[in-house]
Amino acid sequence: MRLAQFAGLVNLGGRVLEVLPKVASSNDASADRGTFLRLLHAAKRVPIHSRGAVGHSVERRTLLGVFIDAFLEEVSLLVRGGLLRQYQSLTDDLRVVRGRLQVTRQATVHGMRPDVISCRFDELSIDNPRNQVLRTALSVVRPWIESVDAARRVAELGAAFEGAALLRNALPVIDGLLPDRRAIRYQDALRWAELILRLLSPNLRSGNSPAPEMLFDMNRLFEAAIAANLKRRGRPLGVELSVQDTSHELEDRESHPAFKLRPDMVLRSNGSLVAIVDTKWTLSAPGRSGRIEPEASHVYQMNAYASAFGCEEFYLVYPWHSGVDSAAPSVFHLKRRGGGPVRLNVVCVDVGSDDFPARHGCFHFLDGSETS
Q: In this predicted structure, what is the pLDDT of residue 52?
């Protein structure tokens, strides 16, 4: 099994494999789990811990248990706010008239039964696709519950969805859901339901198909978390951040520009370019010079950005680990034809802390006060 730079969960049929990111040489699964949850929370990839930070008690639990609890919390909020109900057209034989009389059926079937009246009527019901998906997900997580409290919550929530049908395969139903402004508050719960069903649904564990999984690309996750952090910190200073900026190419011909560039982050202030930031989910280490020396391909990439964007301040951001504590300040001045050198700053941020502080280097476009 090759998972490369992915982390999350893989269902191996009766067992769920936890794949955790590594940023240090220690074998502390709790710390690695906390790092992963912290990045998920900051990057807003899943609606997890939206009401608080990632604490030590959460780190000590399994990922699946944390994800199930987050799903149950979102469903609980829906139940407390009232489930979505829709009118359904029903036909029934009643003792009193309700709705419209079914004249043809009454005459042909109940012609000799004046005590039975065939009626068609509308009734509010929770039996709609969104509630069906959530009830199905609740039934799927039941065998994977880790605590008595979670089992009690599943039972209570299951009772609230009793009027919704169980689905044999809920994923096509999720894919077919149309936007509905009345169901906006269902978004987070349905996102969790989709992830859980893709991971745990028994309908997906047959044949020669790949193992069901809930995996996240750590490169993209790290990039999104750092982008969200820098955007939040730069906003009060008037620094605007754009992600995956595609405004420049290496060949800038009006008719057919070629070799489009896509830096992770471009920062501007009052319309002027301030800095370009690229993140790398890679362990860095001091080189012979005592500085953290990035891979040559990373530096060539930043040099291409310098050529096209005309920017003078660049940052390569890596996850911090104790192995770089002794590194000298890692600032490189890259040659640029037709202009002065550009400054490449290497920054290592601590993904073990909720605010992702820089432990090596600093972001000069913020306040320049972080540890160097």
A: 46
Q: What gap in Å lies between CA 310 and CA 268, rounded to an integer?
A: 13
pLDDT band at 58 (very low <50, low <70, confident <90, very high): low
All residues at 6 or more sequence positions from 72 whose CB lies less than 8 Å from its CB, including other chains: 141, 150, 153, 154, 157
Unique residue bearing structure tokens 């696709």: 129
Cα–Cα distance measured from residue 334 to residue 337, given in angstroms and rounded to the nearest whole number: 10
Does the structure show a pLDDT above 80 at 338?
A: no
Rounded CA-CA distance 44/360 in Å is 25
Nearest to 228 by CA among 241, 238, 246, 245: 241
Mean of the per-residue pLDDT values for the chain? 86
CA dihedral 25, 294, 320, 68 (to 10 degrees): -80
Among residues 68, 34, 32, 36, which one has the least CA distance to residue 54?
34
How many other CB atoms sit within 10 Å of the CB of residue 228? 17
Which residue blocks in 201-337 are alpha helix, DSSP H? 218-234, 296-309
126 pairs with which residues across the strands?
none
